[in-house]
Amino acid sequence: MSSVRESMLFPDAQPMGLAPMQVDDLDQILVIENVAYPFPWTRGNFLDSIYSGYETAVLRDRSQRIAGYFLVMLAVDEAHLLNITVRPDLQGYGLGRHLLDKVGDLARGKEMVSVLLEVRPSNERALEVYRRYGYQSIGRRKAYYPAADNTREDAIVMRLML
Q1: What is the pLDDT of residues 84-131, one digit of tens each?
Q2: % the chain with pLDDT above 70
Q3: How far apart are CA 77 and CA 56, in angstroms?
């Protein structure tokens, strides 16, 4: 994308490009996680992913605040998108699609044949984005996610063939 188009898509947060996620980013990321999700990832989840060598990226706005991020685990010929999040105040400007493009580019560059992810059925906004992007539902993981009142929610498993 050109910087002119980016400034139209992201009026308050012109992206400055992706960089690998660093431990120093986690304070900002945890604030975003806690606002974006009722059951957010923990610092330990992020540290484990970083230290395991997973593919990670943060997208910063022009003030260097984190606007979004993703974490991807590569396994044989499949990329597993573990977490992709856009700061809630910046949702609706195309940043999620921008990050999904980068995930796809990464997976293709590593010669993966597909990208796999799980999403809550209750996360209708994410489901719509993934479907529009070309992800197909391929299964369901029963009681995968923690949910309200000490219950569990299924996960819809989706795949994008590259």
Answers
A1: 999 999 998 889 999 999 999 999 999 999 999 999 999 999 999 999
A2: 90
A3: 18
Q: What is the pLDDT of residue 42?
A: 97
Burial 71-101, CB ≥16 within 10 A → b, else e = bbebeeeebbbbbbbbbeebeebbbbebbbe
d(C-alpha 143, C-alpha 111), whole Å: 32
| Model confidence, pTM | 0.89
CB 116 within 8 A of CB 36: no
d(CA 65, CA 22): 13
Other Cβ atoms less than 10 A from the Cβ of 143: the count is: 11
pLDDT at 13: 47
CB atoms within 10 A of CB 10: 20
Burial of 161 by CB count in 10 Å (0-12 exposed, 13-18 middle, 19+ buried)? exposed
Give the count of beta carbons closer than 10 Å to the beta carbon of residue 29.
24
DSSP for 49-118, please give it: HHHTT-EEEEEE-TTS-EEEEEEEEEETTEEEEEEEEE-GGGTTSSHHHHHHHHHHHHHHHTT-SEEEEE
Residue 49 zone, left/alpha/beta (φ > 0; ψ -120 to 50; rest) = alpha
